[in-house]
Amino acid sequence: MLKPTPSLESPAQPAAPGGAPEPAARPNRGADLTARVALVVVWSSGFISGKIGLRYASPYTFATLRFAIAGVVLLVIAGIRRERLPRGRRLLHLAVAGTLVQAVQFSSIYMGMNLGVPSGLAALIIALYPLAASLLAVPLLGERVSAGQYLGLALGLGGVALAVADRIQLSGGYLLGLGFLVLGLLGISFGTVYQKRFCGRMEPVSGNAVQLLAASLVVLVPALLVEGWDVHFAASYWPVLLWTALINSIVGVGLLYHLLQRHGTSQVSSLFYLVPMSTAGLGALLLGQDFGPLTLGGLVLATAGTFLANRVRR
């Protein structure tokens, strides 16, 4: 996982309106592009691994195992590195952010897909996160979003809707599943804004360990009381579980926080418009799901919108 740049640790760094630190100096473009592409691919793979993992475990049980494994791995790494664990108010802020970004978001996604919502539609709803997070960042972080950026965000949303338009259904358990996905959307939207406002200088290993372990404790309650710890540890389940724990939870969230420390919330969150199309591509490759002309058209439109949202300045 990538560490914050030294400028983020400097007490002399100027603060933006609302108390959030200003983005650091412009990073290496090649490394920054690699981080953005990796974030989209890793985040997209989480919908596929989640869909497969639900064949072996109920949603909250699956989420508990994912967070606990990832949190313990990071805690061990932090101990090896002799990284100091957060305490007091800082510990509380990290736990709150972890609960929102990890526990609320991913357990809700698993619940939604477990109730029959396709992975593409789940990705579409979570892809509304850029608009929600950008709007929240204006009053809470004092960030500015230009008209051009809003246009890019709107184009991205239109591309997402086009890509999955032929898959949307509103019958049976879908309505309850959609409700859970909206809850997941609120979790990541409030969580990343909270993260940037109160946890922008967290240690990348010990801080993430605290967030994951806090998330595991939160979802452990419904896993035990509601699901009765429903899991089947088949040999084919372990690769999926380890992927979600090590790649999705550690690498994916680490990349998200890494980019949030260097860019405005609206620019980073706009990358999530590419996740549904990336998910569709992975679904076609790994699960044999179809990849039709609407998805291709949506990919083009969402890519254009994301490019615009990331290039337009105030």
Description:
- With 314 residues, this protein is mainly α.
- It has one domain.
- 71% of the residues lie in helices and 0% in strands.
- It contains 13 helices and no strands.
- Helix 3 packs across helix 10, helix 5 packs antiparallel against helix 12 and helix 6 runs parallel beside helix 8.
- It is globular.
Key terms:
mainly alpha, disordered N terminus, 0% strand, 13 helices, globular, 314 residues
| Strand elements, count | 0
Order of helices and strands: HHHHHHHHHHHHH
Number of contiguous helices: 13
How can the largest sheet be summarized? none
Q: Helical residue percent?
A: over 70%
Distance between the termini: 31 Å
Low-confidence parts: 1-25
Strand content: under 5%
Strand-pairing-aware structural class: mainly alpha
Number of domains: 1
Rg value = 19 Å
Mean pLDDT: 81
Gross morphology is globular
